[in-house]
Every structure is written in structure tokens, then in C-alpha cells.
Specification:
Blueprint: E1 13-16, H1 17-39, H2 51-58, H3 73-89, H4 93-109, H5 135-153, H6 157-172, H7 187-198, H8 201-213, H9 220-225, H10 261-278, H11 281-298, H12 329-346, H13 349-365, E2 381-382, H14 384-389, H15 408-418, H16 420-424, E3 425-427, E4 431-434, E5 439-444, E6 447-453, E7 460-475, E8 482-487, E9 490-491, E10 495-497, E11 500-516, E12 521-523, E13 535-540, E14 543-548, H17 549-552, E15 559-561, E16 568-570, E17 582-591, E18 604-614, E19 626-627, E20 630-632, H18 633-636
Parallel strand pairs: 4-7, 15-20
Antiparallel strand pairs: 1-5, 2-19, 3-4, 5-6, 6-7, 7-11, 8-9, 8-11, 10-11, 12-13, 13-14, 13-20, 14-18, 14-19, 15-17, 16-17, 17-18
Helix pairs in contact: 1-3, 1-15, 2-4, 3-5, 3-15, 5-6, 5-7, 7-8, 7-10, 8-10, 10-11, 10-12, 12-13
């Protein structure tokens, strides 16, 4: 189970081109400053954050009361992680000074024992509600940010804050100490990152303790609730069982993805780290079983996970409602994290295929094209009037809000985009891996790959490789299979291995030309997904498409795809990314002349044209209906 693929340093990677440069610039110049203003409560009409003020209170700079969620601190930590990834690639003295100043503030808020959390200032309240208190969750995000900042700048101050906090946690939890584990997993994968940078085994052992302690009987959370110091934080969660927290059984015994979807994939990410580091076959096997359960039974075509709004959770196999879906942006970010680790452990491209689908659909849908609106929930079907008036849809937003009271998704998305190079490339002693086709470059010593491509909309990629004799592993995307490969202009047959095309050569500024099959296609669900019976979706490459009312008129439910008709590539509508590809196809519309609520007048099918746009761009032209799945004429015949 030893880890096969290692990440490159972000300092040795560039990600750009017309598509990704736009997002990088959006995060750098719009989102990071915007989120900083949000954290300081400077954006009119946006939900209050009070995050920076909470730290100023804890540091003794101002006198006031804490405001926000118990996990409010994590918004700042994820912002700092985004900043760290930005600085690794785009040095910026002013931004670095801003980050240094807020790191100083965090240090001032840290107690003498290393503990830091602006919500739990009274020592008597600490560690009394691991189930819902999010102390370990916030600690994990602090540690992740600190490791990223150290990697980017070489500065030790924030890493020292993280080590002191981790040492504090280690002094409290473990064998012969306080038992327990977090209600929201995060500390486990963060401790592993801290171990990687410090090489101190106690952090690895503590991460393993939190994983191995989970699911043992008697259940810790039930014992915790019986103690006089316990105070409920989220009363609405008290009816949930241990499955909600992935604590119903030891992680290495779990075979079905269950409970809160973000907590789940964060835990699976840590499990994969530990399995590869400790050569733990039982844990590795559990990761593979859980990955297959998600991708074969509980994942949307968009890479969204988490079907139910109540508990933001997985439900059961094939329960994938399009309109009531939760599909939290953070959950798809977490799925990418899990897949990256599985890819590293097994060296199999299938995990990167899943990572790509989640990235180009649900994750990117989480941010508006101007960078000032965000989706927490990512539905595949929206009717604004129904959303407005039916309380069952209160979690659905037809347009992206500026911010949220619970603001985990915007900062999670920002750190993912700025850290994209960590997902795009990998290395071994034998060679370099290309997992995502993003324009840019990757270096590892003398070995270097430069990529020129307009993927995910363009159908070609040109890679220039140099640096001597080594293997280049090129993912053959399931969503856009490679049609041909040329090396220095000559067609070549290349061997394949675990979904990769492998080219071995003494590289001397040689060129690889790849052509992908980007033909648009209709996608159908297995019969078990009953809500999609008689329906089809459309994809082109890794991009899922949808119909919007602004292009096609209201009542999208009346349209039926003629899925025997070709899907034609057309110009993108105004207001969306011009470099994208829209699709048009022949369809039919139910012409319903029924005038009363119910009657016997039979509808007729009238031919029409239907325009489809990339799903991640929906809701950028005002409030209107949207659907991914539409009726299928071929299935109806």
C-alpha cells in the first residue's frame, strides 16, 4: 500500500491558459480580497462574519462577545491556506504582509498551553462536546493553513503556532489520556500533513489514534452526552445516529458511505493517507470499497455527493433526487481530496477521472463568473417559484448569495483552485504524472513538462518534455478518450497502465501531441435511479450541460430531447465564458392545451430547438429555471 505518486511543490508548478488563468486571477484579485473584506465585515448586505473581530477579542485587543458559528475560526484558516497557495505561485509582498499580520493575531490569541479557539475561551468548556463542538475541526484547518504557508514562504511562525496547538491536543488525547474523536473529521488529515513536514511521529500516531478509536463500543458520543459538562450546540442534530458521524463501526470495517458527506470524505482522505504511510491493507481496502460505493451508487453525474438536505448527508444507493439534492460544494472538494490520495496510493487514473468530473462541474459551479457569489448547494434542477414557496426547498438558491452564515464553501473552493497544481501533477522516482490537462508547466529537478491546451473545451493538448530519461504518465480521460498520440509529429502506439498512457524516452525537448474525443454525448442513468427514468443528460468531455430558461423559455419540464439527433456545437450565449462551447439539438416540446387543472386533452409533441450550456455556468444571468436531466424521446419510443 506504499504511496506510489508524490505531489510536486506548488512552487514548481504553473497553471494558466485562457481557462485557468481566468480563475487564478479571479481568486487572486477578486475572491481573496473580497473574502478578507467579508472576514472584516466590510461588505454591505452580506451575512455577518465577525471572524477577525473574534480573534481580536481572544487576543485582548478589543472587548466584545464572540459572534458566529462554533467553527467560525476555520473561515480565516481556509482563507490563509488560499493565500499560501497563491503566494507559492504568485509572490506578493503586500498580501504576504497582510497574512503575516493576521498570523501574529492568531499567535496572540493562542493560550500558554498552545490552545487556540476564539469560541471556547473558558477552559472549562473545552473538549466537552467533541461531537458538535468543532474544536478539532478548527484545529485541523489551522494546521493545514500553517503547513501550506510554511511551504510557500519558508516562514516558521505559523507552523510553530500549529505545532504548539498539535502538542496541546496530543497532551490531551491518546492512549492512557482522554478518549474520543471529532464529530467533524479534519484534524486527522491535517496531523498527517504536519507529520510530513516535521517528520515527528507523534503527529502521525495521533492521527491514527483518532481514526482507530472511532466506532468502538460503547460509543464515545453517547458517553459524552451523559457528562454534566456536556452542553448541546446543535439541537437539530440530536436525533441523528452514529452513522451520521461515520462512527457506527471502525473505519476499516465500513463498506457504505454514510452520514454527513463532507465529514465522510474528509475521513476517507485521512484513511488513505494512513493506509499508504503505514502499509495498512485493511484500511486501504476499506477506502477502495467506500470509493466504489460513492462513485457507483451515490454520486451525481456532476460529481456532487450528499443527497439530503437534512444532515447534508448520503442516504442510500441510487437515491439521487435532482431537485432536493444537497450536493454541497465542500463535499465535492472533499471528494477531490479523497481521490487525489487514492490516486497517489494506487497509481490508478480512475480516481483522477472522478476528481476531474467533480472539479469541472460541482466545484466550479460553486462560484459565479465574477467571483462575488457562491453556491453552498448545487442542484441539478431548479424551479424558482417552487424554491421560493415550498419549505422543502429552502436550502436551494436560484442565484448565488454573496456569503453565508455558515461560510465553509467559498474559502474551500478558493484553496482548491489556487492549489490546483497539487491535483494536476505527480511524481515518482521513475517519472512524472499528468492527471489534469491544464495549461502550464511542472518541474521536478531536471525533469520538466510544459503543457499547451484549451482543455476542457478544446480537443488537443501539446506537451513539451525535457530532462533526460524517465517515464511520462498521461491520463487517458474516461470522459474525453484519447483519439491519437504523436511524438515529434509521428503517430505512435503507446503502452497503457492503469488508465495512463506511458511514454518512456530520453527526453530532449520532445513534443507530445494528444487529440481527445470531445464529441457531445447523451448520458443515461441506471434503472435504479428512478427519478431519471425516461430522461437523459448531456456531456461534452468532462463538462455536464444543462438547459436554462433564459435560452429556452419557461417550463423546462415540457422539453424532450431527441437523443437520436446530433448535438451541435454553437457559440456561447452572451454573459457566459466566450471560450466555452454551447450545444444545440433538435428536441420536442409538449404542447399542452389543457385549460383546467385536470382534464382529458392529450398533449402533442412539437419540434423545436434546445440550447444547452455548461452546468458550472448556470445562474450567471439572473434567476431562471434550470435542468440537467430532460425527457428522452429515444427512451419513450
Amino acid at each position: 500500500m506504499t504511496k506510489k505518486i508524490l505531489p510536486l511543490s506548488l512552487k514548481d508548478i504553473t497553471v494558466g491558459g485562457s481557462f485557468w488563468s481566468r480563475y487564478m486571477e479571479l481568486i487572486r484579485k477578486e475572491v481573496i480580497p473580497y473574502q478578507w473584506d467579508i472576514l472584516n465585515d466590510r461588505i454591505p448586505d452580506a451575512a455577518r462574519s465577525s471572524c477577525i473581530k473574534n480573534f481580536e477579542i481572544a487576543a485582548g485587543r478589543v472587548q466584545d462577545e464572540f459572534y458566529g458559528m462554533v467553527f467560525q475560526d476555520s473561515d480565516l484558516y481556509k482563507w490563509l491556506e488560499s493565500v499560501a497557495y497563491t503566494l507559492a505561485v504568485y509572490p506578493d509582498a503586500e498580501l504576504e504582509k497582510l497574512a503575516d499580520d493576521v498570523i501574529t493575531l492568531i499567535g496572540e490569541a493562542q493560550g500558554e498551553d498552545g490552545y487556540v479557539n476564539t469560541h471556547y475561551r473558558d477552559p472549562k468548556t473545552r473538549w466537552t462536546n467533541l461531537q458538535h463542538g468543532h474544536e478539532l475541526y478548527c484545529a485541523g484547518h489551522l494546521i493545514e493553513a500553517a503547513v501550506a504557508y510554511h511551504d510557500a514562504t519558508g516562514k516558521a511562525a505559523f507552523l510553530e503556532v500549529a505545532k504548539r496547538f498539535a502538542d496541546c491536543i496530543d497532551s490531551v488525547f491518546g492512549e492512557g489520556k482522554k478518549s474520543g474523536y471529532p464529530g467533524h473529521q479534519e484534524i486527522e488529515l491535517a496531523l498527517y500533513k504536519l507529520f510530513e513536514v516535521t517528520k515527528e511521529k507523534k503527529y502521525l500516531n495521533l492521527a491514527a489514534y483518532f481514526i482507530n478509536e472511532r466506532g468502538k463500543k460503547p460509543y464515545y458520543f453517547l458517553l459524552e452526552q451523559q457528562r454534566p459538562t456536556y452542553k448541546e450546540v446543535f439541537p437539530e442534530l440530536t436525533t441523528f445516529g452514529q452513522d451520521y458521524y461515520q462512527a457506527v463501526a471502525p473505519p476499516f470495517e465500513q463498506k457504505v458511505a454514510m452520514g454527513h458527506s463532507v465529514r465522510a470524505v474528509y475521513m476517507y482522505s485521512a484513511m488513505a493517507d494512513l493506509a499508504s504511510e503505514q502499509n495498512d491493507k485493511a484500511l486501504a481496502d476499506a477506502c477502495e470499497i467506500l470509493y466504489r460505493d460513492i462513485t457507483e451508487k451515490q454520486m451525481y453525474v456532476t460529481g456532487a455527493i450528499g443527497s439530503a438536505s437534512i444532515g447534508e448527508r448520503f442516504t442510500s444507493a441510487y437515491d439521487l433526487p435532482n431537485d432536493l439534492i444537497y450536493g454541497e460544494t465542500c463535499a465535492s472538494v472533499g471528494l477531490m481530496m479523497f481521490c487525489r490520495r487514492m490516486n497517489a496510493m494506487y497509481g490508478d487514473a480512475k480516481y483522477a477521472d472522478t476528481m476531474e468530473i467533480a472539479l469541472y462541474n460541482t466545484v466550479l459551479a460553486g462560484i459565479s463568473l465574477d467571483g462575488k457569489g457562491f453556491f453552498y448547494v448545487n442542484p441539478l434542477e431548479v424551479e424558482p417559484k417552487k424554491v421560493e414557496n415550498n419549505p422543502n426547498y429552502k436550502h436551494i438558491k436560484p442565484v448565488r448569495p454573496k456569503w453565508f452564515d455558515c461560510a465553509c464553501c467559498p474559502s474551500n473552493l478558493a484553496r482548491t483552485v489556487m492549489g490546483l497544481g497539487l491535483y494536476a501533477y505527480g511524481k515518482t522516482d521513475e517519472g512524472l504524472y499528468v492527471n489534469l490537462y491544464c495549461e502550464g508547466s511542472a518541474k521536478d529537478g531536471m525533469r520538466e513538462i510544459n503543457v499547451s491546451t484549451s482543455y476542457p473545451f478544446g480537443d488537443t493538448a501539446t506537451l513539451t518534455v525535457q530532462g533526460g530519461s524517465f517515464d511520462v504518465y498521461l491520463r487517458n480521460p474516461q470522459a474525453a478518450p484519447v483519439k491519437s498520440v504523436k511524438i515529434n509529429g509521428r503517430p505512435m502506439d503507446v503502452k497503457t497502465e492503469n488508465g495512463y498512457m506511458v511514454v518512456t524516452r530520453d527526453w530532449k525537448n520532445d513534443t507530445i501531441e494528444i487529440i481527445f474525443d470531445m464529441a457531445p454525448r447523451y448520458i443515461y442513468s441506471v434503472a435504479d435511479v428512478q427519478v431519471n427514468a425516461g430522461k437523459a443528460a448531456v456531456m461534452r468531455g468532462p463538462i455536464v450541460y444543462c438547459a436554462e430558461q433564459v435560452d429556452n423559455g419557461e417550463l423546462l419540464s415540457r422539453y424532450v430531447l431527441d437523443d437520436n439527433a446530433p448535438l451541435t456545437e454553437v457559440k456561447m450565449p452572451q454573459g457566459l465564458l466566450a471560450e466555452g462551447v454551447a450545444l444545440q439539438t433538435k428536441a420536442y416540446s409538449y404542447d399542452n392545451k389543457q385549460t383546467t387543472l385536470y382534464g382529458t386533452t392529450k398533449p402533442t409533441l412539437q419540434p423545436c430547438d434546445l440550447k444547452l450550456i455548461p452546468y458550472f455556468m448556470w445562474a450567471n444571468r439572473g434567476e431562471n429555471e434550470m435542468r440537467v436531466y430532460l425527457g428522452s424521446l429515444a427512451l419513450a419510443q
